[in-house]
Amino acid sequence: MQTKKNIVIKPDVTIPLPEGVTWPEFITHINEEKNQQLLKKISPSTFKYILDESNYSKVIKSLLKTLKQTDPQNATEEYAEKMLSAMQEVARMILE
User: Fold this and answer.
1) 68-96, pLDDT tens digit by residue?
2) CB 89 within 8 A of CB 10
3) Radius of gyration (Cα) for the chain, nearest Å?
4) Higher pLDDT, 2 or 66
5) CA gap 18, 31 in Å, rounded
6) How many CA atoms lie within 13 Å of 83's alpha carbon, on the beta-carbon side?
7) Burial of 63 (0-12, 13-18, 19+ CB in 10 A)
8) Which helix or strand (DSSP H or E) is residue 40 part of?
């Protein structure tokens, strides 16, 4: 039987989620079995890459490029930095 860990979400991570979805709900969904299977398909090296500080500017540049295509109103460096912070929190949780 698998036990669930208590996840602490830092309050300075302010990436908006879809309306009606909270960070605790988001984390709960990540922990669901079907999503765990999806996450297992992602190489741990991908998560390690975004955690490596030497890749910071590359990841920010990539996020900005994606945001310009998918969410132009939020395609700012500040938003990308907040998004990366949230991604890093999730990556740390997954790699634990």
Assistant:
1) 888 888 889 998 898 888 888 888 888 88
2) yes
3) 14
4) 66
5) 18
6) 18
7) buried
8) helix 33-40
How many CB atoms are closer than 10 A to CB 53?
Answer: 7
One-letter amino acid at 15 equals I
pTM: 0.66
Residue spans of the domains in the chain: they are: 43-95
Question: Could you tell me the CA-to-CA distances from 28 to 34, 80, 82, 91, 95 in Å, in that order?
Answer: 12, 23, 21, 15, 16
**Tokens coding 36:** 């765990």
d(CA 76, CA 7): 28
